[in-house]
Amino acid sequence: MLGAGFVGKDGPMPDLARDLAAVVGETNVLVEPDLRAPFETDWTGRFHGPALMVVRPGATDEVAEVVRRAADEGVPIVVQGGNTGLVGGGVPAPGVAPLLLSTVRLTRLDQVDTAAGQLTVGAGVTLGRLQEAADRAGWTFPVDLAARDSATVGGMVATNAGGLKVVRYGPMRSQVLGVEAVLANGTVISRLGGLMKDNTGYDLSQLLVGSEGTLGIVTAVRIRLAPSQPEKVVALLGLPATADCVEVAAAMRRRVEGLEAAELFFQDGLDLVVRHAGLPAPMSREWPAYLLVECAGAADPSEGLFELLADLDLPEAATAVATDPAGRQRLWAYRERHTEAIASLGVPHKLDVSVPLDALADFERRVHGVVSGAAPAATLVLFGHIGDGNLHVNVVGPPDDNETVDDSVLRLVADMGGSISAEHGVGRAKARWLSLSRTESELAVMRAVKTALDPSGRFNPGVLLGDW
Amino acid sequence: MLGAGFVGKDGPMPDLARDLAAVVGETNVLVEPDLRAPFETDWTGRFHGPALMVVRPGATDEVAEVVRRAADEGVPIVVQGGNTGLVGGGVPAPGVAPLLLSTVRLTRLDQVDTAAGQLTVGAGVTLGRLQEAADRAGWTFPVDLAARDSATVGGMVATNAGGLKVVRYGPMRSQVLGVEAVLANGTVISRLGGLMKDNTGYDLSQLLVGSEGTLGIVTAVRIRLAPSQPEKVVALLGLPATADCVEVAAAMRRRVEGLEAAELFFQDGLDLVVRHAGLPAPMSREWPAYLLVECAGAADPSEGLFELLADLDLPEAATAVATDPAGRQRLWAYRERHTEAIASLGVPHKLDVSVPLDALADFERRVHGVVSGAAPAATLVLFGHIGDGNLHVNVVGPPDDNETVDDSVLRLVADMGGSISAEHGVGRAKARWLSLSRTESELAVMRAVKTALDPSGRFNPGVLLGDW
Is pLDDT at A378 greater than 70 in this prediction? Predict the structure, then answer.
């Protein structure tokens, strides 16, 4: 551990920092507080803690060597990708002083195998660069989310990122053919061969997906791409109730080929967006609930959508459709600008939950009561990915350290058979509520697996399993 | 353990059998040799071993009670579904005398949630019944294989079954939203809530998929269905070389919407099928390699296929297309009747391998040399799922206990970066070759996970990890 003489890389360096500088290069061991600072606080500003040092290896064998040397010294490791997480899973907890291992220099980006529709990328490659590489090769990478220019592939694998197109393509898990990772004992496992079928035992790659850095450090990923779907149509529908949105989205999933997104929001959120962003109202009258859908195909995907819309026989003031890029973007703005419009009211409590589809309308009704009971003066704004039963619950008003609202909402979610974290993960933020979504048997298995792979608890202490 | 007085359920019963009869009912504890016999030999006749008794629980809590009581007595458990496996994973090894737990009475079949496109099924439900239930509800279950009337959902989950439509829908893994399972300590984990997004820790359901009964006994599964695709078109193409088949299949995957199957076979296999089944030749001339593709959609999917075929500009004698059911079945027969046509030559060594797509043509060339080197008089017939890089290597001639050919072919596969088991699993048949597809680090992790979940090694001893 660090002695009192530790003042940074220009002063007397502790042995570990000096050793690691020999592995990754001096400029990639950041010991001075001002160099470490950007890594020590998450982008929301809610999670922060000091790191012993920030180490940025540039290759898998360097990661392995860093892990081995940290283990020799008994130093825990926190892994960080693009630092865009929402649950504090990638920054140190106060009081731990871990080595913070940043994956941003693992930027391997192999050529796309255009026959197989696959490529291998380093954990530090951003989502945006991966999407561009896929597009250039005539394929597409179908996971998309707002943080695309910062979020890294490794972080997205570690958290099983979701986003807008899960209804068609599944989450990150579904795009991962295999991973390369460094384990807590410093060994490397590597499944980057791109085999589409491989039934030779436990799928360790899938075990690492969503494990939030607690079982291994993902260093590279073999990605499965999807065929390009350049023709798109977007429709925004105003409907009388949430239940109608659920029903129409379900009918679309069954009947309309190429449904890529099915999003839900409400009049209060729409009002906020219209005011905040200075947009015109999308329709000549207001509706209690809005369903935004996008369909995409190699050929024009609108026929099935138009047939279904004709069957629904909605009033004219309830439908807006766009096939041109500008028009599609205009409709998407009503949904996508929710986040910034909500932020303009204050720092929200962001809860990211899912419930079974047939409980979604009931949940939407009950959550209003629960929030106004727990915080009568709070503002509640809901929106989400209705195709996946995933709602983002934003509560503005209660101070950041007041967890009463969070607790009430998450208990409602659990009562209704839902998940307390649909896509953001558990991290440190939700660890105390994990038992709402997981039984004691399941937690026992998770702890057993953690013990099997990381017996000393060196990787991401406090994340996911709490004080395990 | 059984004493000398053990003669079956009508005579003096050992304590364990009597105890278990109280749990599952007397008629569901089979101790007499003739009642046990059908469970003790796999359907290929290659794997067999005596069981202490066969126990057929009818509910999850009965499974848990059986597991606990067997653990108390130190008796290992072999799990068996429809007994259609090809690698001896579901029958006792000689000399072990385990309790054989049959899942065939776990036949829960819940109503389809038509909005979500999901249902919950018991492990003992056959693939055929699951497909029918999905069809009746206006959805489809897209994993399909020849043993559909015997293979059970539980077995298909445990082995991550593949089949004909993996190129579009992925293997069994991709259809599993969650499982219910009994662990070696007798506790039950259950993820049947049907949540489409749930990032609350390690995905234990996915860990169990493909674990071949070594980590837990799957008792029920939450299944994700796919929209029905009633309109279909099938095309059989004759091509000059395997590499052409790879290239055309890849172009189809990228350009043709709704590609559901892309199958490969060769002139020697076709000759065998034509002779054995008394079919007319499919085309007016012969070709070195054949590519069979099926596309399906809610609407007619043939447009994209016909455009691609026009671009390929194949000779007339190289293309057969069918859109009507009888015609499609006629074309499929040339591929599907390979198995029985090969069996008419003798009991084949069946190797089920995959290689990266860009190595497939080279593998096809080299495997002929390897087989004729190892067994000059053998007959080699190849066919497979080219869309997944999965080839079934059938070698007729060498006696069943001669593993020279198997060893040579699997070493070639490993040299080329392939998998020694693409879809059948490892079982007992391939355990000795597992290290060809898995590094020592990976095997160490698998053993650690096995130890974490089944520390006494009670579940499926000898399967997958061998004498672990």
Answer: yes
